[in-house]
Amino acid sequence: MTGISRRALTAVLASFALVIGMSAEARGIVNGDRVTSPAKYPWMAQIQILRDGRRQGSCAGTLVSERWVLTAGHCVDSQDIRVVLGSTALRSETDGSFRVVRVVRHPRYAPGGGPLRYDAALLRLDPPVRFGRTVAPLALPASARLTSYPGPLVVAGWGHTREDGPASDTLLETHQTESGRCFRQGLRRKVHLCTLIRGHRAPCYGDSGAPLMHRNARGGFTLVGITSGIVGSHPCGAEGQENYFARVTALVDWIRHWIHHSTEPLARQHR
After folding, report:
1. Residue ranges of the domains in the chain?
2. What angle do CA 151, 87, 45 make, to 5 degrees?
3. SS3 label, residue 164
4. What CA–CA distance (Å, rounded) separates 212 from 210?
């Protein structure tokens, strides 16, 4: 996945070394596996940043209702945004695309000065989405209660697969394991969720906004994190290092408020 601009990335990294995404020449999941069917993760959304109607960069997001997609707050500095659903291919054409008619950042999001907190934004789509086998919402956590997630987590997104490589033309996924070491480095357990990098498999620049998913015992997925940053100044996929995510339990009441505000039902658990 590509992000917003190299200038934006440089400015942010000058103030702190904990950001993922935001580069127009973005990097994606390092050592990820190809996702061949959009039905596997039908909530995956491409967030295309436009200039004069053409794609200049992109992030990822998660479909959470018929009208709303959730992504990272730092992805939406531009208001000219298009969302593409129902495809594993990184696409520039307009098939499966939706206009974004409203951008709502979390009210406590503030860039710069350290790890991003409440790094989340909701995008309202027009027209509303019709659900089907390849387009469906991802379930939110049942409550705002702080939760740990045993077993592997999954993150998926588009983008470059190494520091100097080209962008991937298809959706990639990788498994992650929750880690708590980052909370000794200025991150907050209440609002952040961290994962440990093993086997050099990790999200990277351009995977901003991508969903971190937990699979339950019944095989259904729940959205637990939004890809936000790299802990420290290490390169993407550095063995034994960590990535951090916006913790969705800290956001779920805000998300539900906006979904209810638009009189829409919440997403049911997708199996």
Report:
1. 1-271
2. 65
3. coil
4. 7
Q: How many CB atoms lie within 10 A of CB 30?
A: 25
pLDDT single digits (tens) 168-202: 778 999 888 899 989 988 899 999 999 987 767 67
d(Cα 50, Cα 29) in Å, to the nearest integer?
22
Residue 140 gets which letter from DSSP? P
User: How many C-beta atoms surround the C-beta of residue 153 within 10 A?
Assistant: 22
Three-state secondary structure call for residue 224: strand
What does the block give as tokens for 44? 């995956």
State the first-to-last Cα distance of the chain, in angstroms, to the nearest integer.
26
Judge contact between 76 and 123, C-beta under 8 A: yes
β-strand pairing of 242-247 with 192-196: antiparallel
Dump pLDDT digits (tens) for 85-135: 999 988 756 578 999 999 999 999 988 777 899 999 999 999 999 999 999
CATH architecture of 1-271: Beta Barrel (2.40)
